[in-house]
Amino acid sequence: MPSEIFQHNSGASQEAPLHWKVELTHTCFLPSQLPLEPGLMEVVFSGRSNVGKSTLINSLFRRKVAHTSGTPGKTRSINYYRASHGDQAWYLVDVPGYGYAKRGGEERSSWLHLMEHYFMKSPNIAVVMHLVDFRHGLLEKDKSLQSWLHDLGIPLQVIFTKADKIARSKHRGLVLQYVKKGLYSLDKPYVTGATKNLGIGELQRGIQNLLFPEAVTEEL
Ligand SMILES: Nc1nc2c(ncn2[C@@H]2O[C@H](COP(=O)(O)OP(=O)(O)OP(=O)(O)O)[C@@H](O)[C@H]2O)c(=O)[nH]1
Ligand SMILES: [Mg+2]
């Protein structure tokens, strides 16, 4: 993907955050609990366990709606958050992370079953936000997820997390290095550091522009 087509700036930026409203509406442990009928567009947050999905969701909503933990495997259900900004509404969907070695055989197969069911059957997925630790780039399991979703025809957008652990002067070069190695992403990867609120305003505007391209994002 040529870097000129990327729309937003590189490196974690500090645009003022928007005020999104949020409500947790569905917590699904089983495929039968998934709301699979046509409905609001869904922005899915996926990535390795412990990559920072729930922490980033809390930063986007400026509220502690998702449970976070230093121990991998915290989020075990697919959680739907109804998000809104003015009269625009959508679901932000937090899915359990992968690559958690301690997950037992039975738990792993029920996790896989739930994930396959969701990604193959939901008619509302607008984009999968693929969270990747900025310190490591895409690891083997990240590449497998990307290939699988790409083959299913689901658009991907990469978001790097934990960028606060890397010096700002290295951000731009590191993004280019990871992009050159190859990844699927609609637009240039976002660079975030949720615990320091880095890149949050920019990511919020990016999500709204992706979902509602005709609307001008205003501060409400
Ligand atoms: N420094 C820093 N730490 C972060 C950031 N995001 C998450 N963390 C830390 O990483 C750990 C895991 O964060 P979670 O948000 O629970 O990760 P998750 O991806 O939801 O994990 P699972 O639910 O287990 O899949 C926590 O200790 C967070 O405080 C970040 O941007 N910067
Ligand atoms: Mg989580």
Tell me what you see in this structure.
It is globular, with a radius of gyration of 16 Å. It is α/β, with parallel strands linked by helices and 220 residues long. The chain has a 7-stranded mixed beta sheet with strand order 1-3-4-2-5-6-7, sandwiched between helices. The chain has helices at 53-61, 105-121, 140-151, 171-181, 200-211; strands spanning 21-28, 42-47, 78-85, 88-94, 125-133, 156-161, 190-191. The structure holds guanosine-5'-triphosphate and magnesium ion.
What attributes characterize this protein structure?
220 residues, alpha/beta, Rossmann fold, 7-stranded mixed beta sheet, 7 strands, disordered N terminus, binds magnesium ion
Rg over CA atoms, rounded to whole Å, is 16 Å
The CATH H-level homologous superfamily: P-loop containing nucleotide triphosphate hydrolases
For the biggest sheet, the summary is: 7 strands, mixed
Q: Any idea what the shape is? A: globular
- Bound molecule kinds, no repeats: guanosine-5'-triphosphate, magnesium ion
Query: How many DSSP helices?
Result: 5
Structural class: alpha/beta
Classified by CATH, the class is: Alpha Beta
CATH fold-type name: Rossmann fold
Unreliable stretches, pLDDT < 50, 5 or more residues? 1-7
| H/E element sequence | EEHEEHEHEHEH
What is the terminal-to-terminal distance?
34 Å
Tell me what portion of residues adopts beta-strand conformation. 15-25%
Fraction of residues in helix: 25-40%
Can you count the beta strands?
A: 7
Query: What is the averaged pLDDT score?
Result: 89
Neighbour order of strands in the largest sheet: 1-3-4-2-5-6-7
- The total number of structural domains is 1
